[in-house]
């Protein structure tokens, strides 16, 4: 049963209902420009109640529901660096909406105002605008939360739907990778100089022959290396940022098996033999049984590996100079140049979907397309 009253220049509804303990409760909302608007909103509340919605839950605040959603669907399922992002987003929501704003009261306009302020740099120490990509990621997380709230019948529509994203255009990062000649030069050097003391050569060779991410490579443990079948089982990563040990992969698709060439099998057998002999002499047992722990019982850091890679590149007169992540791009570039199917490459490098692969490597795909056009025309010309 709904009642309506005018308060100043706006209208308010009050819907009464019986809760789970058969006690009468009320839902109120004000601020409607017309009585008709209040009646339509109240009718929607009553419809949801008849469908089984718990109207008492509708008093939950934005931050309470965010915390609940994170705990149920996100916590413990992603890398530490990703999970830290949830706290950053929460602080942004708290700064703009406050601690007490109910989830049900947030309108599409409220959310658009927040996104505009966020993109303009609200809450940022330097006051500079944020990138459009940053606004898009934040909106994506909150949209997923709001979808869950709709399913829980706490809100009746997703307030992020149709949001317009603004913000600075992010820096276009040039996709740096090695041409085939330099790729072979780097690989040959890494294979020739690999040792337990210079474990970075093993790491570089593994990266360039698998396309795996840095955290995936250094997170390899011997139980997940099948040298007889020539397969690496990527099941987790190594948390090199916060040093908490094994961490989840970037996404579900990153959990995968990667077939490796015989050259890498031979190289890893050599490393395993070196490592076993050293550990026997030193009386050392690695609790994680990591593949790339060096003779100092350490896992090289990302910055250390990049420094070693840069040193090798300069020594070999390789240009352009690339970072460790550039080895991943080099792997993909080489496979595309050899006509390997893009869907297999996407799976091999652990992308969440083929669309990501096609976006990241769009210019390389254009090169491959030109080659296919030439091949097609040559084939048709002999008919």
From TrEMBL:
One example of a Gene Ontology biological process annotation: DNA recombination
Pfam families tied to this protein: Arm-DNA-bind_4 (PF14657), Phage_integrase (PF00589)
Protein name in the entry: Tyr recombinase domain-containing protein
MF terms in GO: DNA binding
Family of this protein: Belongs to the 'phage' integrase family.
Keywords (A to Z) from UniProt: DNA recombination, DNA-binding
PROSITE patterns tied to this protein: CB, TYR_RECOMBINASE
Record-linked PANTHER family: PHAGE INTEGRASE-RELATED (PTHR30349), PROPHAGE INTEGRASE INTD-RELATED (PTHR30349:SF64)
SUPFAM superfamilies: DNA breaking-rejoining enzymes (SSF56349)
All copies of domain Core-binding (CB), residue ranges: 60-150
């Amino acid at each position: 049963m709904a009642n309506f009253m005018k308060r100043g220049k706006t209208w308010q509804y009050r819907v009464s209902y019986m809760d789970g303990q058969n006690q009468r409760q009320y839902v109120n909302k004000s601020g409607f420009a017309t009585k008709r608007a209040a009646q339509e909103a109240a009718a929607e509340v009553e419809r949801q109640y008849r469908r089984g919605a718990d109207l008492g839950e509708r008093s939950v605040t934005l931050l309470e529901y965010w915390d609940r959603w994170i705990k149920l669907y996100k916590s413990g399922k992603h890398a530490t660096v990703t999970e830290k992002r949830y706290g950053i987003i929460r602080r942004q929501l708290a700064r703009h909406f406050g601690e007490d704003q109910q989830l049900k009261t947030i309108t599409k306009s409220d959310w658009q105002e927040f996104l505009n302020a966020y993109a303009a740099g609200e809450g940022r120490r330097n006051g500079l605008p944020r990138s459009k990509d940053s606004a898009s990621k934040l909106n994506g997380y909150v949209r997923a939360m709001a979808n869950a709230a709709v399913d829980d019948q706490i809100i009746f529509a997703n307030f992020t739907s149709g949001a317009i994203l603004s913000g600075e255009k992010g820096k276009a990062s040039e996709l740096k990778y090695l041409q085939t000649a330099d790729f072979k030069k780097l690989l040959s050097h890494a294979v020739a100089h690999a040792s337990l003391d210079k474990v970075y050569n093993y790491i570089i060779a593994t990266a360039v022959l698998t396309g795996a991410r840095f955290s995936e490579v250094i997170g390899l443990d011997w139980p997940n290396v099948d040298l007889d079948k020539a397969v690496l089982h990527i099941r987790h990563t190594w948390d090199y940022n916060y040093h908490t040990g094994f961490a989840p992969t970037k996404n579900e698709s990153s959990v995968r098996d990667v077939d490796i060439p015989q050259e890498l099998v031979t190289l890893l057998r050599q490393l395993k033999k070196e490592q076993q002999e050293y550990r026997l002499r030193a009386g050392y047992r690695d609790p994680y049984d990591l593949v790339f722990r060096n003779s100092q019982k350490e896992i090289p850091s990302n910055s250390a590996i990049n420094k070693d890679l840069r040193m090798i590149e300069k020594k070999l007169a390789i240009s352009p100079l690339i970072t460790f992540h550039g080895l991943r791009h080099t792997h993909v570039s080489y496979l595309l140049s050899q006509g390997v199917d893009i869907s297999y490459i996407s799976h091999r490098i652990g992308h969440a979907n083929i669309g990501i692969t096609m976006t990241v490597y769009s210019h390389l795909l254009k090169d491959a397309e030109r080659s296919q056009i030439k091949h097609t025309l040559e084939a048709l010309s002999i008919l």
